[in-house]
């Protein structure tokens, strides 16, 4: 059976729309405030570099996040904890 051009176009549009929603979903589930709260508990001020590192954690770049936080002066234990909560859904 051959699909009509119209049916193929509708299916293609649907696939692209759902794919775009799937790509946007991880950002909606990011918990940057939880990441920065842990950094504050370590006694470190939340700066632009801390926020940038937490953003790396959002996209599951754990190594980049931890490196960024430790470069900002966050102790390794706190950095690991903060980066592990960043990609999770906010509470």
How does the SSE layout of this entry go?
Layout: H1 5-28, H2 32-41, H3 48-58, H4 62-71, H5 76-85
Produce a short descriptive summary.
By secondary structure, the chain is mostly helical. The protein has helices spanning 5-28, 32-41, 48-58, 62-71, 76-85.
Helix fraction bin: over 70%
Structural class, from secondary structure content?
mainly alpha
Largest sheet: none
- Output the radius of gyration: 19 Å
The global form is: elongated
Q: In angstroms, what separates the terminal alpha carbons? A: 49 Å
For the secondary structure, the number of strands is 0
Nearest-integer average pLDDT: 79
* Unreliable segments of 5+ consecutive residues: 20-28
- Give the strand content: under 5%
Helix/strand order, N-terminal first: HHHHH
Q: How many helix segments?
A: 5
Short descriptors:
5 helices; mainly alpha; single chain; 91 residues
Please give a structural write-up.
The N and C termini lie far apart (about 50 Å). The protein is built from 5 helices and no strands. Helix 2 crosses helix 3 (about 50-60), helix 3 packs across helix 5 and helix 4 crosses helix 5 (about 75-85). The longest helix is centred in the first third of the chain and has 24 residues, at about 5-30. Helix content is about 70%, strand content about 0%. The protein is mainly alpha-helical. The chain is elongated and about 65 Å long. It has helices at about 5-30, 30-40, 50-60, 60-70, 75-85. Mean pLDDT is about 80; it is low at about 20-30.
